[in-house]
Amino acid sequence: MSxxxxxxxxxxxxxxxxxxVFWLLPWLLDRPVDVxxxxxxxxxxxxxxxxxPEAPYSVEQAHRxxxxxxxxxxxxxxxxxxxxxxxxxxxxxxxxxxxxx
Length: 101
Known about the structure:
membrane; transmembrane; transmembrane helix; 4 helices
């Protein structure tokens, strides 16, 4: 193979690699991902939050709240948050060690 052919192969290969790094990868990373059944973030933030109870839940009440508020998140729903920690304190659930009150 001549030096010119080697140079052309190296240049074309380098340009292809640069194209992949600076065009293809960013395009793949930035395109929206459509997950069936996913709830948009703005809809989650617009949801009404359920207030925390005036008095602590009993364990049975906490179980019921956890069932009724199954679509809520403990980070955004004060009622489910209180119910979750009542169930944990009763020893009926074990939170992830990374979870903070």
